[in-house]
Design goal:
This protein is α/β, with parallel strands linked by helices and 357 residues long. The chain has 2 domains: 160 residues, 3-Layer(aba) Sandwich (Rossmann fold); 130 residues. The protein is 48% helix and 12% strand. It contains 17 helices and 11 strands. The strands form 4 sheets. A 5-stranded parallel β-sheet has the order 4-7-10-3-11. Strands 1-2 form a two-stranded antiparallel sheet. A hairpin with a 4-residue loop joins strand 8 and strand 9. Helix 3 packs across helix 5 and helix 13 runs antiparallel to helix 14. The two termini are 39 Å apart. It binds adenosine-5'-triphosphate and magnesium ion (MG). Magnesium ion binds next to helix 5. GO terms for molecular function: ATP binding; ATP hydrolysis activity. This is AAA domain (Dynein-related subfamily). It holds the Pfam family AAA_5.
């Protein structure tokens, strides 16, 4: 097994991508490695003509993925928008892997992201020694993607200051990046496009200017529709985590995952699943991604400090940690939920006991 902690999507799923390419009968947009139809199959999974099984990466509405992929064939860029933990980065990585065969051209947006990290920078030693030349130019992932006709990913676009965001406008509308110092311009090769992600929960974000907004097609990724879908997501992600981390634990029982997801969904929506009891929602987002972490944590506890079988005790610490983000208010809300909901469920006694400790 590779020593890399987390491989790129195009490496982890190389076999699937290769098989999809072999079976692909659709028309390829310029510089795409797969047809749009095959990219969607790669994302949502399916069976190929020769019986090869493609695993689903995104679990949810297929239509959303079709819109996302179709957008990338046009001159508009794609913005994946939504609550934290709704798979925006995950989808963006898989889209880039399937379309360009490279998900690594990426810029992490922060308040400190500068224009140079989007356009280009200089190797100052060289610049001083030799003066401005193409050799002294430091390419950014955006510039490389333009030259190679690939997808570049910009994570957390709205954390980038508004003035810096606007450097993207020319890139997206003119598909060109001028380098006045050298009196040249880099023109984007066909196949180039941008996938940005942004979440609508974080504080201190910078709204997109309307000029920039117009150059993006926004696809909103929702929280999973129903509990079974969410359980399926958690189960699949936990199983792949186990494989990578080689945790010495048994596969978690579906029942255990169902309970975690139930707790998360109920607290998130402020209502029990049967619709009978109103509860208060804690301050955190309680996303699917956090449910995945809680189960992963529990698996590690069970594997290393338990008998290898996931129990309520293994999960308790993780659940409490995920739910109580504000030590005062959330603590009260959680206690109330434990007493009014968890305690009354016949087969939840073990969770109640474990969480009370
Ligand atoms: N609908 C879904 N289908 C498949 N996986 C999902 C889904 N929703 C969440 N996940 C899983 O949740 C995890 C977290 O997703 P990701 O990091 O992409 O979230 P995000 O939307 O980028 O969040 P943030 O806004 O915090 O950056 C991923 O491991 C992903 O597999
Ligand atoms: Mg993200």
């Amino acid at each position: 097994m590779s020593q890399v902690l987390r491989g790129h999507a195009e490496d982890l799923y190389a076999l699937e991508l290769e098989e999809l390419k072999k079976q692909d009968s659709g028309k390829l947009p310029a510089n795409w490695t797969l047809s749009p139809q095959s990219v969607v199959t790669y994302l949502v999974g399916g069976k190929l003509k020769n019986g090869f099984e493609v695993t689903p990466k995104y679990i949810g509405n297929r239509r959303l993925m079709e819109i996302a992929v179709a957008t990338l064939t046009t001159d508009r860029a794609l913005l994946l928008y939504g609550l934290p933990g709704t798979a925006k980065s995950w989808v963006s990585e898989h889209l880039a892997a399937a379309i360009s065969g490279n998900s690594g051209l990426i810029i992490q947006g922060t308040a400190g992201t500068s224009e140079e990290s989007i356009r280009y920078g200089w190797n100052y030693a060289r610049l001083l020694a030799e003066g401005p030349s193409e050799k002294a130019l430091v390419e950014t992932p955006v510039m490389r993607a333009m030259k190679e006709g690939k997808i570049v990913r910009i994570e957390e676009l709205t954390r980038i200051g508004a003035d810096v965001q606007d450097t993207l406008i020319t890139i997206l509308s003119e598909k060109s990046l001028p380098v006045p110092e050298l009196n040249i311009e880099v023109q984007a090769v066909r196949g180039f496009n941008v996938i940005a992600t942004a979440n609508n929960r974080d504080k201190g974000v910078n709204d997109l200017s309307s000029a920039l907004k117009r150059r993006f097609n926004t696809v909103i990724l929702p929280v999973p529709d129903n509990i079974d879908e969410e359980i399926d997501i958690v189960r699949r992600r936990v199983e792949s985590f186990e494989k990578v981390m080689e945790v010495p634990a048994e596969k978690p029982a579906l029942q255990e995952i169902r309970r975690i997801v139930t707790i998360f969904r109920e607290l998130r929506s402020g209502l029990t699943l049967d619709g009978k009891t109103k509860i208060k929602s804690p301050s955190g987002t309680l996303s699917t991604a956090e449910a995945i972490s809680v189960v992963n944590n529990g698996m590690a506890m069970a594997g290393y400090f338990g008998d290898g079988r996931l129990t309520a005790e293994d999960l308790a610490a993780g659940i409490t940690g995920a739910i109580i983000k504000d030590p005062v208010q959330d603590q009260v809300i959680w206690q109330e939920y434990l007493e009014t909901v968890v305690k009354t469920r016949e087969d939840w006694k073990d969770i109640y006991r474990a969480c009370k400790q």
